Amino acid sequence: MRVRVRLFARYREAAGRERIEIDLPEGGTVESAWSAVAARHPELARFRPFTLFAVGQEYVEPDHTLAPGDELCLFPPVSGGAPDDVFRVVGEPLSPDAVAREVDHPGAGGVVIFSGVVRNETGGRPVKFLEYEAHAPMAEAKMREIGTAIRARWPSIKRVAMLHRVGRLEIGEASVLIAVSAAHRQEAFEACKYAIDTLKRTVPVWKKEHFEDGEVWVGLQGG
Q1: What is the residue range of 140's domain?
Q2: What is the per-residue pLDDT for 97?
Q3: Could you read off the pLDDT of 64-73 as tens digits, one per residue?
Q4: Is the domain of 51 the same as that of 138?
Q5: Measured distance CA(11)–CA(53) in Å, rounded
Q6: What are phi and psi of 181, to 5 degrees?
Q7: Torsion over CA of 95, 97, 103 and 109, rounded to 10 degrees?
Q8: 107 neighbors 41 (Cβ within 8 angstroms)
Q9: Which pLDDT does position 123 carry in this prediction?
Q10: Do 69 and 92 belong together in one domain?
Q11: How far, in Å, CA of 164 to CA of 91, rounded?
């Protein structure tokens, strides 16, 4: 089967190309795809311990089975880290102005902020308030992974901030804030959208909706 491989940042520069097509046997894994790429471009081999893998917009493990036509993305380690980025689970109210200051950078030509706000109804059913619960250390680690992927995909990114609130939230309060600054506005928009879409799928935060006639954990059935 044929699989497309996309290279980012230093991988792209080292290989001298952004995309590679490789042939794998049926049932081939991410690891076997990496081996095929490294055999063709041995200069990449030393980065294997630090490499992140994704198919589509989902992180995958090395033993993930690939399907014909998949595009496997190889994300290199972020050189020097990003000490000014912010990834936190907090109990206090979130401030868009404060998160904008977190990503302020003299080289930024665009700053995009996403605010997820508690609405007053779900499916026509009035909501009284929400409760959020998180595995904070893992949630912050997963947000940091998202930040790493953003910096690999969009080189003009300057700073990233992701904050998620836990506890009781009233109608109109922000549950999550994501801010991205970049040299160019398009990359800031794209990175911010990627961040919230990925956060909703991968970060261990759970929401309980409280109604006049009951309560429910969102995403759980039969409870």
Answers
A1: 86-217
A2: 95
A3: 999 998 999 9
A4: no
A5: 13
A6: -110, 145
A7: 140
A8: no
A9: 86
A10: no
A11: 9
